[in-house]
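Subject: Sanity check before I submit

Could someone independently write out the structure tokens for this chain? I want to compare against mine line by line before I put it in a report. The sequence has 398 residues.
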Amino acid sequence: MVKVLVINCGSSSLKYQLFNMEDESVMAKGLVERIGLEGSMLKHQPAGKDKVEISAEIPNHKVAIKVMLEALVHKEYGVIEDIKEISAVGHRVVHGGEKFSGSVIIDDKVMDVLKECINLAPLHNPPNIYGIEAVKEILPDVPMVGVFDTAFHQTIPEYAYIYGVPYELYQKYGVRRYGFHGTSHRYVSLRAAQFLGKPIENIKLVTLHLGNGSSISAVKYGKSVENSMGFTPLEGIPMGTRCGNVDPYIPVFIMEKEGVGLDKINDYLNKKCGVLGISGVSSDFRDIEQAAQEGNKRAKLALEVFTYQAKKYIGAYAAAMNGLDAVVFTGGIGENSSLVRKMVCENMDFLGIKIDENKNNVRGKETDISAEDARVRVLIIPTNEELMIARDTVALIK
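---
Independent answer below. Compare away.
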């Protein structure tokens, strides 16, 4: 029985799922929170059992992985008898640069490339690397696979990924559009093709991964040809706390007028902007929707800005692909907010996009919400990046 452990390491967190790949069922999943901080704990959910919360001192990712493995083999709430039952480990890695157009078995050469990419993803790649190094130390004989957020977007054509800056900056430093959330966009585009009963090689999709971080992709005949995120995950539509597209001079203006230093501007644009900055209420869309319904004008404006920008990308990507067969909503907001889906899709009938409001009144369920006479289908497909990582891992170790 092939059992695959999927790990997603953040700077102070570690998410995991253990899959039985015979039927792709989740045996256990969980989250280690506040790594290196006070109040660190493990939240462990074995399949068919009660969730367990364990407080412990977890100073680093190595200890976090040990705590996770102890939970997986625990007599009461564990799901395996021995960690030797784990056949392979799949790691989510944010940035693979231009070196990886698919998932790879992790070896020393791969690790060197991941370290080279730190300057492209300084917030994300270091914790990904910590997780890989910790697993290698604790489970030295278990094969590991890296699945990259950027890999799916390596099919974006050169004219779409080059920015209007001196070409030498691309040659010297890799300044180009990379695109992110690739594992999610790949999963939902494959599921959308299955749902529609059509070969993915024959359809044109716009996939909207809408969450605290949001990105939109044009997927033509199964390949990514555009993504709204760019050199970093800061580009695109305004997000929970990220600014999205702004005039490049605005950060300089903010630094000058607000006294925000060079060392702080990145943090400012990533953590104080987006719908949080517009609404002044929250980065959580549930709070923003509630505030808007209660008459908060800035909360209403934040929703309007977010959905308007998403609408613009759908139109642009339909033009870029010379056609559109379906729009796919996924991610925490895309799957659960009927209001956001409605606002994005309204007044798009010229493109053949019309939704049925009754069908749209659904949360987190794979469904077609298109109106009967719509030429373009509108789908909700809950994403499953962890399963995609597990599948890639099994394919490579075999």
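---
OP: Matches mine. For the report I'm noting this point. The mean pLDDT is 96.
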